[in-house]
Design goal:
209 residues; mainly beta; Gamma-B Crystallin, domain 1; 1 helix; 8% helix
């Protein structure tokens, strides 16, 4: 169910959620992983064209590998897909968004800080193009929501918490979600989003305690 973004903090009633796929505590790291797979000549040319286009779309970026562009000292990292070598991981300290289900295709990694900021996806050519996501950070550290309009407006279509701090009981939470148990529970991956989950911006806030 899609819900409107709310500005007030309202705790929802406690819910019993299944504990699925709980990961061990990740080790702290402050760096992103470079992705430099083997590519043939045509793949290299095609990826470089995409990188050049992105650097024109948003200035201030730096090409950091044959497939990647970074902004703000790694605050945002774009990894362009190489068909023969999937890139399905998400570095610690980041929330990662892919253009296709099951963590395939172009990937946008955003550093997840417990600071109230909003990131518009159009500057990375990822607006309305996100189909799966992962979050890799400390437990109950930062709340993340995906909005259907720029600057966090419109409706909430993705979140890692069911607390109303980000939106009124947001999102199509279902048993296939992987959760870390607490009140409210935290969700840290989703291999597929529904067809109408069109994200245009991403909202970050301190986790609601």
């Amino acid at each position: 169910m899609i819900c409107k973004i709310a500005s007030s903090v309202m705790a929802i009633t406690s819910m019993v959620m299944p504990l699925i796929g709980v990961a061990q505590e990740p080790k702290v790291s402050s760096k992103y992983t470079l992705f430099a797979p083997s590519m043939n000549k045509q793949q290299t040319i095609d990826i470089q064209k995409k990188i050049d286009t992105q650097l024109l779309l948003k200035t201030g970026g730096q090409q950091i590998s044959p497939t990647q562009v970074a902004y703000d000292n790694g605050g945002a990292v774009i990894t362009f897909a190489v068909t023969s070598t999937p890139n399905t991981t998400c570095d610690f300290g980041y929330v990662c968004f892919w253009e296709h289900n099951n963590y395939v295709g172009k990937k946008l990694s955003l550093r997840s800080h417990p600071t109230a900021i909003t990131v518009n996806l159009a500057q990375y050519d990822m607006s309305n193009k996100i189909s799966s996501w992962r979050h890799n950070n400390n437990l109950f550290y930062v709340a993340i929501g995906g909005a259907s309009q720029a600057n966090g407006g419109g409706q909430m279509v993705m979140a890692n918490t069911m607390d109303d701090y980000l939106g009124g009981g947001c999102c199509p939470f279902a048993i296939e979600h992987s959760t870390r148990h607490a009140t409210p529970p935290e969700f840290y991956f989703r291999p597929s989003l529904k067809y109408d989950n069109a994200m245009v911006s991403v909202v970050f806030k301190p986790y609601p305690w």
